[in-house]
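Entry 14. Two folds queued back to back today. First construct below, sequence then structure tokens.
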Amino acid sequence: MTKCKLEYIWLDGYQPTQTLRSKTKVVDDFSGNVEDAEVWSFDGSSTQQAAGNSSDCLLKPVACYPDPGRLGKGFLVMCEVMNSDGTPHRTNGRSTIMDDDDDFWFGFEQEYTIWNPDTNKPIGFPAEGFPAPQGPYYCSVGSGKAIGREIVEEHLELCLESGLNVEGINAEVMMGQWEFQVFAKSAKRAGDEVWVARYLLERVAEAHSVSINWHCKPVQGDWNGSGMHANFSNSLLRTCGSQEVYEQVCNAFQPRIQEHIDVYGADNDQRLTGLHETQSIDKFSYGVSDRGASIRIPIATVERGWKGWLEDRRPASNADPYMVASAIINTVRSAKVGTPA
């Protein structure tokens, strides 16, 4: 009989930014199938999700991955938080995604900063002052430019061994800032994999005595912020072959600026300033290959005859991918496609 360690992972109730929690359940001969992972419970009064006199919240397994970073046989079990009666908890963003037929595909570009707790700055930054201005750090190689590669490579390997569909990594514009990309042909699955990848990154950082800063503007001044650009498509965008349809979908976002900003991450006003490859937080624009727009129409979409995807560049690095996907799906479905502009 083989003992298996199941790491149940969930999102707490902290606001404005939820954080990851997890605990281990030891079971016998686990199959690795999420359907065989039992519903568990936790003390919601310790995570700002319940009162002390009625503190039980439920963990409903929704995705399961091998845990390659643990000795023995382990699994990472992503969970939704449910009330004690089995209904979705108010903090359960995954339950708000209305896409049961998985028509929507999502790719998230998760930026983050590796943080030195001793200096309270990104790794590579001097204890006093600043490094050379940004420019040489993006997709860089070499000492003094690509700082923290050993952490990034270790994280990538763990993600791939666990079966997460991480499609790439790169050093970002600010020193100590990096990115990984996750893609799934399911909005919920894309959210699951971003959160599990975030969990693995936090665990790697623990081992290296650094931390991960998810804030969207970790260093004030002339430094890029951190985003979580959301690339999305549905069957309409993948097949329409029409510039007019793309423009109608983009225009559906215009009257919903605040609705999106409300779920696109805390302190995003510090990042969405109109500078550093962003549009201002209170404005909306779209354009082909325009990284200063709210929504970028990739050149690949145009070259394929207007069959492809869109990129919403506004979500912050600390946003919940479940809530981002939910908002985008609702807006795309509201588009008046086929009606005169």
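Second construct, same run, same settings:
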Amino acid sequence: MKKLFSIFFLSLFISNLSSAQELDFLSRSSFKAGEKITYKLKYGFFTAAEATIQVLPTDIKFDNKPTYHLMVDGSTSGSFDVFYKVRNRYDSYIDQKDFTPYLYTENVREDKYTRNDKARFYQDQKKVVASKGTFKSPVTQTFDLVSAYYFARNLDLTGAKIGDKFSVNYFLDDEITPLTIQYVGKETIRTSLGKIACLKFSPSIRPGRIFKRESKLYLWISDDANRIPVRAKAEVLVGSIILEINTAEGLKSTLKKL
């Protein structure tokens, strides 16, 4: 379970990205301040954890440019909270026009494991200055755990074809790494909010303490103007975990339901 939130939510947030040295994005934002979405993480029949992602109002500027304040927090629940307590929070400040990050911070508490870190992004200089040093990036679009997801929501995927593979560079655990995602197709998902038409993706995952070598991760993103994560399912060393949307409020566009 160690670092479960970091690995699982990272794959979730960057599931709908396009391949290129520099990724094209829409001129308008698909989200606004006040948006708040909650999820339940299920292991078998049990709800193991809950998560919230939201856009908070802020007057903070970087390089005299306005930003969005993005925040994600996750915590274990029920009996899981008794045996393995998780209290994680991730914050990111991104540019309101090109959606790339300026500053990322994380406060991780997973049982006895703790991590407090921050990273300052200098996109034009292709570098990230973090607590443990300076890291060079091959592109001028490098993302963190949270900003990658919100950037992805502003990409135009109308031309995507089944089997297409996409990639993005992200910074996590003092390393800049590319992630590859394959577009699987369209599928309708039944949720607590109703039936939602989705785009389905399958990101590559690294085998290790959580994932097996042959494990698969699938993600469903709403096929509308919001482009929000609806469901994620991953095979782990024992069984599988499922992340499902629970509530959504403050969306910029009405969520399209069938």
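Quick look at the second one. Residues 4-249 form a domain with the YmcC-like fold fold (CATH 2.40.360). The radius of gyration is 17 Å.
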